[in-house]
Amino acid sequence: MIKKWYFYASLIVIITFLSVGFKPFSRETKPWFSIEKTDGSEYLFPSLEEDDYPEVKQVNVLFTKKRLISFKEAVAFKESQGKYRLVNSLGYMGKYQFGIQALKSVGIKNSKAFLKDPALQEKAFIALLSKNKWILRNEIERYEGKVIGGVEITESGILAAAHLGGAGSVKNFFKNKGNRYFKDAYGTSLRSYLKAFGGYDLSHIEADSNATIHNI
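User: That's the sequence. What structure does it adopt?
Assistant: Structure tokens below.
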């Protein structure tokens, strides 16, 4: 009789325990990560529009579209597609297609060494810009902002045109009020360079009649 009582009592305890163990507790729980409703603005990709970054625009850090480095690369691509070792059929060489006389004017006598040295080519380009800026300083002051021969004249356009045909050709262009056309041996016009490379900020280039690779 006692054994039966123990058996039924034990059975009742086991059933009670199992019932309580599977009963959900009434308590507040929080997930291990949080999901909140937002307007989605924090997941937007960076904008490609310059005007969306006014704080950057003020300090002129990222947007270098019209800076010297952009001017250099644009001219280089037009001249040689940016190839330092390129020599064309007329003997013009390097990334910026220098002729022998232009090299001499900035203090370079060894054209073979020039062709193998990218850093030297970059210095030569800056030196030639400085020299042409001094030679054409009066034209820059007089004609910048005006429309000559259907082209708005800018300092960078003038210097690019001088790189194409020499400072003398640019002087003749203005002397004839844009009515006479200069083209190089491949048919590229001075006017096309005045237009294509206009509007770049080259204010950091100093006008220097004695500019060479040694003082750049």
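The radius of gyration is 37 Å.
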